[in-house]
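User: Can you help me understand a structure? I only have the sequence.
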Amino acid sequence: MAEDDYYDILGVSRKATQDEIRKAYRRLAKEYHPDRNPDKSAEEKLKRINEAYDVLSDSEKRANYDRYGTADFQGINMDGFGDLFGSLFRGFGGFGDIGFGRRGRAGPSPGQTLRMTIKLSFDEAFFGTEKEIAFKRKVSCENCRGSGAKPGTSPTTCRTCNGQGQVVRSMGGFMSVAQTCPTCGGLGESIDSPCPKCRGEGLQEERKETSVPIPPGIEDGQGIRIQGGGNFGPRGGPPGDLILMFSVEPHESFVRRGLHIYMETNITYSIAVLGGDVEVPTMWGSSKIRVKQGTEGGTLFRMKGKGVHTEDGRSGDQLVRVNIHVPQKLNKEQREYLSKFDDIFN
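Assistant: Let's start by predicting it. Here is the structure, written out as tokens:
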């Protein structure tokens, strides 16, 4: 079973219908359910199956997964961050001061989209934080103001396409096709005297350091796309985007599933039999769960509101699975007490 492709996990094609995906999920969920499959790896496989179905059964998540390789570009609510991100990129060189010059019909090609990964600790992703990032990107050349032409000169009209950016090729008979001009690359202009600093490209490299706000509740593999944050296009082309992906480190005690977090804790045999309060850690501080008399190992307890809290008011729970601790070593007195208990119980 593939570990990195949701379609392979469910055993369906990329053109599978929702009905086919649903049937494949039900079949695999039965096959790998722990009650039917005693294999130790079945539980982990079932988690991957559920994860794949959660994405492929949702049209929006599936579309993002097919396009970007992740389902979570739209998974982050960025309401309230518009002003902050706007100010963040207003210092990137100001799109209005670029010398675009004259354009052909095809126009300058857009700049490349940049992609970078931001590493977060479990706590940073859980509560939210602010991260300093630094990256390099190409911006408009200061020397020629993005035109690519040597200062004091200007681009000239392309002689091949007469400034149209396209040439028409006859295919014989009544057939003809318009193609991007091979001389000017669709710009409609040519540069006789290139800028010595950027060599006619109209771009120069800059290093940008800035602070990025991370809202609470970010999950591993989620990402956001910031329009216009990537490289500028050559000779006045529009900028590409900046994609920020988040990599969240695991926690030593907790496992995150959406807004909920899971953990396991040990209780003594006497607590399981008689009942009592057990103190457990949470992301919000220590708290207690009430263990009922006769609780069996593997019982799952829910702690309301102890999971993730997002800025839009959603919150999750903490689920605690209790295991009965069996001591490996006993002293003489302990053995005598257990023997007496066993005699009385029987």
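Now, to help you interpret it: Residues 130 and 213 are 4 Å apart (CA to CA). The two ends are 49 Å apart (CA to CA). Let me know which part you'd like to focus on.
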